[in-house]
Amino acid sequence: MHKVILWLKQAWWRAYMGLHTINEKSNHVAMRSIKRIIVHPQYDQSISDYDIALLEMEMPVFFSELVQPICLPSTSRVFLYGTVCYITGWGAQFPHPNPSASFLTRVRIINQSICNKLYDDLITSRMLCAGNLNGGIDACQGDSGGPLACTGKGNRWYLAGIVSWGEGCARRNRPGVYTKVTALYDWIHAHVSLLLSV
């Protein structure tokens, strides 16, 4: 979820699964209309706290070779500092502001207290930081809402974070800031359980 979601109607949104290149024509690509957007009631646009929303699709998604689920980490799961994770997205990539293909970048979880100092105490308990303190790798404009995926036991992938904000892109001592999924697990689980019971 990101600020833009507040002024766009769900009728304008589409979810694409299995898409790697914009305008790609493939049997592997699935598109779904969005039925409903559920924004966290405590979302604070001024500091991007509780920066999360759930999108309910009009139709189910079927898994394939290119469309696979990611595990939702429970509140007890800890992603240790230094853990290698991956971000993917369609955002700006220097020198190309509008890339035609998605990217995959390797980042590391940054110590919460270090990140909080770098960002003058703006990092809440619902945020986590990842990247490289020397700069050079990061999510960027257009990647908001994208996944921060980390592996766990049994080589399962977990959604550790959601691209939220940062200062610039890939700058020294300005790591990317992500919504911390474990901190919002109870809210996510409650809404998903409610949707599945209907």
TrEMBL record:
GO biological process: proteolysis
Assigned keywords, A-Z: Disulfide bond, Hydrolase, Protease, Serine protease
All residue ranges annotated as the Peptidase S1 domain in the record: 1-193
Pfam families, per database record: Trypsin
A GO MF label: serine-type endopeptidase activity
Protein name: Peptidase S1 domain-containing protein
